[in-house]
């Protein structure tokens, strides 16, 4: 039955043709049919064996495939877990490295600016900011010309999109210069905690991001430490504190605005991307005409023409070094903000105040009292408590 079903319709046609072609031949037909059946059995036996073997293989195959699928599924899951773990480690390393680079450049920048404005007595903060940004533009343009880095072309559409955040950037730098002129580094670090409060409130209203009670408790401690530090500050200066409060507002606005502007700016570039070097070049290029305008507004031109500091080679060396630090802090801040968020950006900025405060007191020999030192320490502890609350 298997052989006939398997070779049908060819076999049945052969049998019918033989039967039809031999009328009246009884015995001969029986012999022919007997020989034909034996021939079909011989032919069909290997076919039958092949069919049975294939059927048995087909019966075993699903089980084997199931085992293979299960094993391959486990392998795929293991591979996915390994890829996810590698991505997690890579992202963690990127965030950690960018955070450390941002902390180092930020601390160094504040100490060098304080040294230029206080130790040298340089009374042109906007000019200092302008020179630092000019150094950054020259370095990034040179690296791009040599092909070591890639930057997006500065089109009018891109500059128009980036202009609002650049105005905030320039205001942040200028208010930082003016506050450092009147306030010691340790108190500047404590007062900068107000930036975290403004940033957290801005994230809540702008991005609908909610914070738990521990975060708000840490922010409240930061405000208390800033107020107590200002009251116990032996070198309190109202103008310096005003500039510092403005700097806190502008710094929080910069961190909140930058991520949204980055997403919008990518849509108007030719490649659809905007790397850190392109943003540094764009930020510093746009700050040059605005800085020149502010130099005339604040009447720093007369001071630059008469100050003997510009004739000192060591002073120019310190200024150029501060320009390199300006490029470093611009790059690392955008790099770190890419890896994290606005609150984490401000958070790490508050954590690096611990070594910065100690270095500022020791290097510049700041007169301090027990109450003021306690308030500074209280503010630094509040920053650490805020960090732990955000991590949870």
UniProtKB/TrEMBL annotation:
It is found in: Membrane. Residues 97-385 form the Sugar phosphate transporter domain. One of its GO terms (cellular component) is membrane. Keywords: Membrane, Transmembrane, Transmembrane helix. Pfam families: TPT (PF03151). It is a multi-pass membrane protein. Its main location: membrane. The keyword Transmembrane helix applies. The chain crosses the membrane at residues 89-111, 131-149, 161-180, 186-207, 214-232, 238-256, 277-298, 314-337, 344-364, 370-387. This is Sugar phosphate transporter domain-containing protein. It comes from Dorcoceras hygrometricum. The lineage of its organism: Eukaryota, Viridiplantae, Streptophyta, Embryophyta, Tracheophyta.
């Amino acid at each position: 039955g298997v052989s006939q079903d398997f070779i049908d319709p060819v076999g049945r046609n052969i049998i019918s043709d033989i039967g039809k072609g031999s009328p009246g031949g009884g015995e001969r037909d029986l012999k022919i049919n007997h020989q034909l059946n034996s021939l079909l059995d011989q032919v069909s036996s290997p076919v039958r064996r092949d069919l049975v073997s294939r059927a048995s293989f087909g019966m075993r195959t699903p089980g084997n495939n199931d085992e293979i699928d299960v094993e391959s599924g486990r392998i795929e899951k293991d591979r996915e877990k390994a890829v996810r773990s590698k991505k997690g480690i890579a992202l963690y390393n990127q965030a950690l490295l960018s955070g450390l680079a941002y902390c180092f450049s930020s601390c160094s920048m504040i100490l060098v600016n304080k040294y230029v404005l206080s130790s040298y007595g340089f009374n042109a903060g906007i000019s200092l900011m302008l020179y630092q940004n000019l150094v950054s533009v020259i370095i990034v343009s040179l690296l791009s010309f040599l092909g070591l880095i890639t930057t997006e072309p500065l089109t009018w559409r891109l500059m128009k999109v980036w202009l609002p955040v650049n105005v905030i950037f320039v205001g942040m730098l200028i208010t930082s210069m003016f506050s450092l002129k009147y306030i010691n580094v340790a108190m500047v670090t404590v007062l900068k905690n107000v930036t975290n409060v403004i940033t957290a409130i801005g994230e809540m209203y702008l991005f609908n991001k909610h914070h738990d009670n521990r975060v708000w408790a840490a922010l409240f401690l930061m405000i208390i430490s800033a107020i107590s530090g200002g009251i116990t500050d032996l070198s309190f200066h109202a103008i310096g504190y005003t500039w510092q409060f403005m700097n806190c507002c502008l710094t929080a606005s910069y961190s909140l605005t930058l991520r949204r502007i980055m997403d919008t700016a990518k849509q108007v570039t030719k490649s659809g991307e905007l790397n850190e070097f392109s943003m540094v070049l764009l930020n510093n290029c746009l700050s040059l005409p605005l800085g020149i305008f502010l130099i005339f507004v604040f009447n720093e031109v007369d001071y630059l023409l008469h100050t003997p500091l510009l004739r000192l080679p060591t002073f120019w060396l310190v200024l150029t070094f501060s320009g390199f630090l300006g490029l470093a802090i611009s790059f690392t801040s955008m790099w770190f903000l890419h890896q994290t968020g606005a609150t984490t950006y401000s958070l790490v900025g508050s954590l690096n105040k611990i070594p910065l405060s100690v270095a500022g007191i020791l290097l510049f020999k700041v007169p301090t009292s027990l109450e003021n030192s306690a308030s500074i320490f209280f503010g630094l502890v509040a920053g650490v408590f805020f960090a732990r609350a955000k991590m949870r």
